[in-house]
């Protein structure tokens, strides 16, 4: 969860939470996010939550506080990014920056509240689903060692690494990664796709076939 949260925050809105630091710090945003998810789930089993919300007591009181933490975090990100854009600092290419750059030309497209909701949607959609899929992927290659060997060989060949892959720092390997490089890793892509087929993170997605005769 920590790795996927860091990843989606970096890709989604250019912020490094540092939750994978050696000391594994408690990140207020991450803690609030987990608490909000837990309390919303409990609502399905607690028929009295509307009363608790109206009286601002119990879990609903905690929920209100944690939602405030989330809103404060996202509002601060948007404020900082707007200052960067006003200062012509457009070096970041995350999704939030793209939304806000588009908003400069079409000012009425997104309000700050809508941008905040978009940030949280990125996190909701990307954190748990990615963590679940990666967990199943690791499980699948562990029970199928020949697949693990193929993924290893492909990674080694594409990145131009030695057989042992020892002696390389994280930074050295990261520099060799790019969209173009990863797009050539067809076996890895196939293994991930098969994992999603066998163990979909969101299994109950219904599709309706439209009018095929028109």
Automatic annotation (TrEMBL):
Keywords: Iron, Metal-binding, Oxidoreductase. One of its GO terms (molecular function) is iron ion binding. It comes from the Eukaryota. It holds the Pfam family p450. InterPro entries: Cyt_P450, Cyt_P450_E_grp-I, Cyt_P450_sf. Belongs to the cytochrome P450 family. This is Cytochrome P450.
């Amino acid at each position: 969860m920590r790795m996927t949260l860091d990843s989606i925050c970096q890709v989604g809105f250019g912020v490094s939470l540092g939750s994978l630091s050696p000391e594994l710090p408690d990140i207020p945003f991450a803690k609030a996010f987990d608490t909000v998810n837990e309390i919303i789930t409990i609502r399905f089993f607690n028929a009295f939550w509307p009363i608790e919300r109206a009286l601002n007591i119990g879990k609903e009181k905690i929920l209100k506080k944690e939602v405030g933490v989330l809103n404060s975090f996202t509002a601060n990100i948007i404020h900082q990014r707007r200052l960067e854009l006003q200062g012509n600092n457009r070096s970041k290419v995350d999704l939030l920056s793209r939304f806000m750059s588009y908003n400069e030309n079409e000012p009425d497209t997104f309000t700050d509240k809508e941008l905040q909701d978009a940030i949280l949607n990125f996190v909701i959609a990307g954190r748990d689903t990615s963590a679940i899929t990666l967990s199943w992927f690791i499980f699948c290659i562990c029970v199928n060692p020949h697949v693990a060997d193929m993924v290893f060989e492909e990674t080694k060949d594409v990145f131009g690494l030695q057989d042992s892959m020892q002696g390389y720092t994280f930074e050295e390997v990261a520099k060799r990664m790019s969209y173009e490089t990863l797009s050539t890793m067809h076996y890895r892509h196939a293994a991930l796709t098969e994992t999603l087929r066998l163990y979909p993170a969101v299994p109950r997605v219904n599709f309706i076939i439209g009018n095929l005769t028109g």
